[in-house]
């Protein structure tokens, strides 16, 4: 190596060291001085908090694990880098699955792990579920109420043919579990409504599923609402008003709909799907309570700004442990709806037909057992709405009356 | 603490660099020691205490071996260090497994829940090598306990190697010079190490884990092959990444650690593979077990015994599970075969067949190594051979999803970088500017780009386990 090369090499070394040092110094400075966030919008989760120092946790190493989590969540540039990482996977590498979302030109679907469910356990699971639902049916019957278990297709089940052949779409599990539960509930005499059959009867129009979210659009909620009330009227001779398109008009929100799938992609997948609301020609006045606290009398969480992204929480304001809507029309019957978030769109359309509509989400509600709640409030109609994924799950909204 | 964590990269490393390089020369070792202890403390202060006990035992045994004039005392020091090191390793790593096996045989024993401190296999072996080296060569004795502690606890190689011999760094500990040249080359090495881990190993880990997590009967042949190929790359890029980062960090602070990998997947025999894979471990067993037992300079039966001991210990070193013992036995079979049976015939085969033979042997070995149990390994091998229902779904997806990483991993497993560098050196002969540009700055720029992408993954991702921490 001659003198010139030595000099140049030394200069190159200094340049490399300076660049590395500057990068580390920048990260450290940003790490020290930036505002510490508490919430990650696109991940829809709280960020880890700075752990409290305790001798026991320092000795066990637990404190440092928590500190690692906190520092990782507060990594300099994290939000931008999350987007950049997703952008590279989505647009540069064009991966078929990004952030557990199956990316297709016209739809985003959830990635379903292989071996997600074991089909051999279906008969047993259906029997256990039937046992739980029979207890709810009996609890409802003890106060003179009718009970229906309503199965609705979640997005992956509704669009199962849209999955590429190399991915799992759970089709076999879905079909077997629907069939097993239907047989089991029918033999036990529990009212069962499968909205997949209703949608199939209409030719399974794509509009009854969302391209960016797990839940059906509001129109799917309307069909579900109609099916439940038509069945209730037919079974009991009641004449509850069945909502229809002639009651109002569907209006689109101008806002971008950030469905849960698109949210996982940091909103980088462009879509023109919009959320809608049902504008009644004759609005029914009501009062609303969430967890016992009176709330603004609305079922749609209207965004204040048309530039703001909206999520499925637009309907009923998202999942609540307990909501009560009272229309103060004592001559009408009352209804209790419980279930996962598929209840929300239905509830937006159901309340005008009832005096009181109660809604529970047993993932969050713990004050009473379901049986106690039914006995306490004596609704005329009890409805459980669950999607195909949780159809046979005996926990939370699938529990029996006494659990 | 792990290198590929925000804690290390954003906080620990910059602060350490600042404190270290602003400190006076005589304070640099204490600074490095203090930060190394903080680094290890991250696994829990109680494990730091264990590390310090090991350091103290090896320091005292080293003093006995280096200062005593009586040979019996010197031998005793090796026995004591071995008993203490292997005793601690045995308790933390193997007691649960051994007692569990005894219980499985029907004996009434309680199996305690023992958490293995990370890096214990590395630092106990380093400590042992120190005492044995001092026993063999008194001049290596380190009388300063802080320097001894620094050797044992030096953070770049503390938790996942390479297993650094005391003789390798004895001079560096006392007389090293940090230079811009070493610092810059260390930075570039660190950047590429980080990239190997964050961009390749972590991604392929997902494909490998998915295949090994599937129910034995439902794993299709394609996914089984994709899974094990992904694991083959994952374990190499994961472990060699850690070694790269360790070597790079060592250079930044003026140390020179020996290479731990040398493109193992280009080997044309299993014997060659083990000269290129985890070199610090295989040379440790060679120098401290195989050769003292007589090595190859004895009859065939004794050679066989020596090999059996080494491969049983190599398997066990990786973990307390029958799969690791079987994995060691697999290599004992292959290496014995190459030594006494088919080695000569192998040499006569076309190069491509020798590569295929070696890769197949290694890949099958990784199946045993990665499986949770021997029965899992057998069912996985059956899936690879097509015994299960033909099901291309999983395999097809993982190929499409991780194709970029698989291709990059395949290319980076070959000595392309060395060939490009050699060509660049030839092309720029007598042209210093072009030479510096091509040989220093372009790789550094590439390294920084890789580091940037790695940081992006680090900041945005959470799937980040280092495989060799568990050993």
Keywords for this structure?
heterodimer; A: 403 residues; alpha/beta; three-stranded antiparallel β-sheet; 12 helices; 15 strands; 38% helix; 16% strand; B: 471 residues; mainly alpha; 2 domains
Brief account:
The complex is a heterodimer of chains A (403) and B (471). Chain A has 403 residues and is α/β, with parallel strands linked by helices. Chain A has helices at residues 3-33, 55-60, 62-73, 78-92, 122-142, 155-158, 171-188, 195-201, 218-236, 260-264, 343-350, 370-377; strands at 39-40, 45-46, 97-98, 101-103, 108-110, 146-152, 191-194, 248-252, 276-280, 287-290, 293-295, 322-326, 334-339, 356-360, 381-387.
pLDDT < 50 stretches of chain B:
none
β content of chain A, as a range? 15-25%
Note the run of SSEs of chain A as H and E: HEEHHHEEEHEHHEHHEHEEEEEHEHE
Which oligomeric state applies?
Answer: heterodimer
Structural class of chain B: mainly alpha
Amino- and carboxy-terminal Cα gap of chain B: 16 Å
Largest sheet of chain B: none
Strands ordered across the widest β-sheet of chain A = 7-6-15-13-14-12-10-11
> What is the radius of gyration of chain B computed over CA atoms, rounded to a whole number of angstroms?
23 Å
**Over the alpha carbons, how many angstroms does the gyration radius of chain A reach?**
26 Å
Q: Count all strands of chain B and give the number.
A: 0
How many helical stretches of chain A? 12
Major sheet description of chain A: 8 strands, mixed
Q: Terminal Cα separation of chain A, in Å?
A: 81 Å
Describe the protein's architecture and organization.
The complex is a heterodimer of chains A (403) and B (471). Chain A has helices at 3-33, 55-60, 62-73, 78-92, 122-142, 155-158, 171-188, 195-201, 218-236, 260-264, 343-350, 370-377; strands at residues 39-40, 45-46, 97-98, 101-103, 108-110, 146-152, 191-194, 248-252, 276-280, 287-290, 293-295, 322-326, 334-339, 356-360, 381-387. Chain A is an alpha/beta fold and 403 residues long. In chain A, strand 4 (101-103) and strand 5 (108-110) form a beta hairpin. The longest helix of chain A has 31 residues, at 3-33. Chain A is elongated and about 100 Å long. The termini of chain A are far apart. With 471 residues, chain B is mainly α. Chain B has two domains: 26-176, no CATH class; 183-409, no CATH class. In chain B, 75% of the residues lie in helices and 0% in strands. Chain B has helices at residues 6-22, 25-41, 45-67, 71-104, 120-136, 145-153, 155-158, 166-175, 180-213, 221-252, 270-276, 279-290, 300-318, 322-341, 343-348, 351-370, 374-384, 393-412, 416-427, 432-460. Chain B is globular, with a radius of gyration of 23 Å. The relative contact order of chain B is 0.11. Chains A and B meet through helix 1, helix 2, helix 3 and helix 4 of A and helix 1, helix 3, helix 9, helix 18 and helix 20 of B.
């Amino acid at each position: 190596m001659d003198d010139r090369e030595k000099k140049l090499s030394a200069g190159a070394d200094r340049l490399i060291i300076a660049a590395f040092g500057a990068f580390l110094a920048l990260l450290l400075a940003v790490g020290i001085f930036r505002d510490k966030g508490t919430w990650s919008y696109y991940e829809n989760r709280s960020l880890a908090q700075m752990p409290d120092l305790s001798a026991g946790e320092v000795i066990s190493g637990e404190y440092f694990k928590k500190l690692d989590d906190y520092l990782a969540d507060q990594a300099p540039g994290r939000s931008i880098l999350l987007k950049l990482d997703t952008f590279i996977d989505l647009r540069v590498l064009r991966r078929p699955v990004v952030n557990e979302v199956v990316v297709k030109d016209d739809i985003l679907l959830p990635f379903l792990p292989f071996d997600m469910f074991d089909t051999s356990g279906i008969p047993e699971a259906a029997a256990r579920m039937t046992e739980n639902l029979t207890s709810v049916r009996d609890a409802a019957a003890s106060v003179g109420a009718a009970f229906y278990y309503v199965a609705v297709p979640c997005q992956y089940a509704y669009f199962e043919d849209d999955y590429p052949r190399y991915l799992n779409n759970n089709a076999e599990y879905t079909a077997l579990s629907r069939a097993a539960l239907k047989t089991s509930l029918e033999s036990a005499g529990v009212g069962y409504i499968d909205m997949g059959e209703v949608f199939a009867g209409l030719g399974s129009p794509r509009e009854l599923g969302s391209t960016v979210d797990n839940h059906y659009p509001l129109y799917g909620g309307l069909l579900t609402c109609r099916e439940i009330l038509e069945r209730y009227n037919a079974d009991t001779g009641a004449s509850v008003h069945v909502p229809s398109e002639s009651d109002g008009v569907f209006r689109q929100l101008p806002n971008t709909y950030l469905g849960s799938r698109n949210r996982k992609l940091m909103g980088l997948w462009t879509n023109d799907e919009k959320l809608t609301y049902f504008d009644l020609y004759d609005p029914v006045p009501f009062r609303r309570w969430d967890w016992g606290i009176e709330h603004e009398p609305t079922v749609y969480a209207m965004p204040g700004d048309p530039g703001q992204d909206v999520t499925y929480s637009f309907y009923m304001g998202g999942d609540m442990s307990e909501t009560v809507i009272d229309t103060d029309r004592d001559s009408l019957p009352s209804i209790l709806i419980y279930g996962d978030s598929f209840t929300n769109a239905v509830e937006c359309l159901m309340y005008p037909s009832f005096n009181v509509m109660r809604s529970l989400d047993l993932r969050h509600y713990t004050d009473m057992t379901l049986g106690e709640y039914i006995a306490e409030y004596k609704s005329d109609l009890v409805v459980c709405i669950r999607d195909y994924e949780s159809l046979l799950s005996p926990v939370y909204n699938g529990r029996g009356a006494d659990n | 603490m792990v290198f590929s964590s925000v804690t290390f990269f954003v906080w620990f490393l910059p602060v350490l660099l600042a404190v270290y390089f602003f400190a006076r020369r005589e304070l640099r070792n204490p600074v490095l020691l203090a930060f190394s202890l903080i680094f290890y403390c991250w696994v829990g202060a109680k494990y730091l205490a264990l590390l310090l006990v090991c350091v103290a035992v090896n320091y005292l045994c080293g003093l006995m071996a280096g200062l005593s004039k009586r040979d019996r005392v010197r031998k005793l020091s090796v026995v004591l260090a071995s008993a203490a090191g292997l005793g601690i390793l045995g308790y933390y790593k193997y007691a649960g497994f051994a007692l569990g096996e005894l219980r499985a045989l029907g004996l009434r024993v309680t199996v305690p829940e023992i958490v293995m401190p990370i890096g214990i296999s590395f630092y106990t072996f380093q400590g042992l090598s120190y005492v044995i080296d001092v026993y063999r060569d008194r001049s290596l004795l380190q009388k300063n306990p802080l320097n001894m502690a620094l050797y044992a606890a030096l953070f770049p190689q503390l938790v996942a190697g390479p297993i650094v011999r005391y003789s390798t760094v004895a001079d560096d500990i006392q007389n090293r010079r940090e230079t811009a040249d070493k610092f810059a080359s260390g930075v570039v090495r660190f950047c590429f190490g980080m990239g190997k881990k964050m961009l390749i190993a972590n991604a392929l880990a997902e494909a490998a884990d998915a295949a090994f997590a599937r129910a034995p009967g439902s794993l299709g042949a394609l996914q089984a092959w994709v899974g094990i190929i992904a694991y083959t790359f994952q374990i190499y890029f994961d472990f060699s990444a850690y070694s790269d980062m360790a070597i790079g960090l060592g250079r930044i602070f003026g140390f020179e650690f020996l290479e731990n990998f040398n493109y193992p997947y280009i080997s044309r025999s299993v014997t060659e593979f083990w000269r290129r894979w985890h070199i610090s471990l295989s040379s440790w067993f060679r120098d401290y077990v195989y050769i003292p037992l007589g090595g190859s300079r004895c009859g065939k039966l004794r050679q066989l015994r020596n090999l059996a001991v080494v491969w049983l210990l190599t398997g066990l070193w990786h973990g307390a599970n029958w799969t690791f013992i079987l994995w060691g036995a697999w290599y004992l079979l292959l290496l014995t075969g190459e030594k006494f049976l088919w080695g000569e015939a192998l040499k006569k085969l076309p190069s491509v067949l020798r590569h295929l033979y070696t890769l197949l042997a290694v890949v099958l070995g990784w199946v045993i190594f990665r499986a949770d149990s021997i029965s899992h390994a057998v069912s996985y091998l059956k899936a690879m051979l097509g015994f299960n229902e033909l099901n291309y779904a999983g395999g097809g997806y993982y190929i499409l999803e991780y194709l970029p990483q698989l291709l990059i991993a395949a290319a980076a497993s070959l000595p392309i970088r060395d060939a490009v560098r050699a060509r660049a050196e030839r092309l720029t002969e007598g042209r210093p500017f072009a030479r510096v540009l091509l040989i220093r700055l372009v790789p550094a720029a590439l390294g920084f780009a890789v580091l940037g992408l790695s940081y992006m993954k680090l900041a945005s991702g959470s799937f980040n386990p280092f495989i060799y921490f568990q050993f």
